[in-house]
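Researcher: Structure prediction, please.
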Amino acid sequence: MTDTLSNNPTEADVRFMRAALREAQKAFDEGEVPIGAVVVVNDRIIAYGHNSTENLNDVTAHAEMIALTSAMNRLGSKYLPDATLYVTVEPCLMCAGAIGWSQVKRIVFGAADEKRGYSTFVSRQPFHPKAVVVEGVLADEAADIMRRFFADKR
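Model: Predicted structure follows.
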């Protein structure tokens, strides 16, 4: 079982991360922690999500969970072995577990989350054994929207 980490984003990775950042902006505008996610299959976005924990009064309503659920419903499957998940901030442990169980092929995230990101809690990748992780895609933009959000809250 090999954990695969790549820091070589493709042009498509940047394009789809921009879509995830637009989702993060929606969360920001709604007063939610600004994290956005999209699920891509065959170079097409099939699902979107942004944090909605406040609006739904649900601590599990993270961007990744919403995007994964939407993608699974759209495809009629509980597994997403051909999918890439783009998320603006490193997934938390809860989301990492859901991503692993859903068998997502690639996980691409922007900013690291040193307080709540999965890598803070686990010594190896919690995703499917064949999953590829690409980190740091548009990390500055993702971190900036988080900083702006929390600056407004303080």
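Model: The longest helix spans residues 11-29.
Researcher: Thanks, that helps.
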